[in-house]
Structure formats: C-alpha cells, structure tokens
Amino acid sequence: MALREDINSALKQAMRDRAADRLSTLRLIMAAIKDRDIAARGEGEEGGGVSDADILSILAKMVKQRQESARTYEEGGRLDLAERELSEITIIEEFLPKQLDADEIVEAVKVAVAEVGAESIRDMGKVMGALKAKYTGQMDFGKVGPMVKDQLANG
C-alpha cells in the first residue's frame, strides 16, 4: 500500500503548491484506484483495497491510454491537447518503476523461460505470468509477447 500513500501525499503537496494540472492528473489516478477498489469489493475480495501490483497495472494502462490519445491528437492537428496528454504521462510515470531497456527485457525473457521450464509455445502463458509477476509496470507486455513466442519457437 506504499504506492497509494505516495500518490496521496503527492496529491496533498500539489494542493499546497496550487499546481492545477498536476492536481487534476493525481485526482484521476486516485479515482481510477478507487474504482478498482469498488470493483474488488463487488467481487467479494476482502482487504484494504487493491495491491501495489494492481495500482502499477492501473498506472501502466493510464499511460498507454494517454499515449494513444496524444498520437490521435497529433494526427488531428490538436497539438495543445496532445501536449496535455504527454504532460499527464510524465506525472503518472513518476509512480511507475524504471522501464527496462531492450537488452534487459531480452534477458528477463530468457530467465523467465528457464525459471518455468518452458519448452514450447504451450508454455507461453506460464512465462508471461512469471514476467507479469516480476516486472509489472517495467515493460510493455504487448511487445514482450512476440519476443517470448520467438524465444520458445527457437528455444
């Protein structure tokens, strides 16, 4: 729950600093987390809310949505809106762990394949599960999937 507390304290600091743009983005983050809390309660899960891993996945999803929106705005010639999306990405990424570079991702895939003892494409789910458990928020799993597939096919 440390991540939730970090976001909350950043929200309070933004209020004190009267940083309107930062404050609105942090409020969006907290609203998304509360939505997930409510959904988890509806499914009968107990506890003090969603875990840090869930919050990381929420943040990663928010970044991806904003990247797509910024691209769409740029294509439509609305650079002012694209800039706003990109500034929101910067604020959200403050709470995400450092992204792995290409070499680190390749190494992580090799380690995960070895750890789960994957031998064929049928083991792809196990490998992806291991990667998601260890590297949530640190890599784009949409891009990692084909890499895992290649590794297992050529393995």
Automatic annotation (TrEMBL):
Membrane-spanning residues: none
Organism: Shimia sagamensis
Name the record gives this protein: GatB/YqeY domain-containing protein
Residues of the signal peptide: none
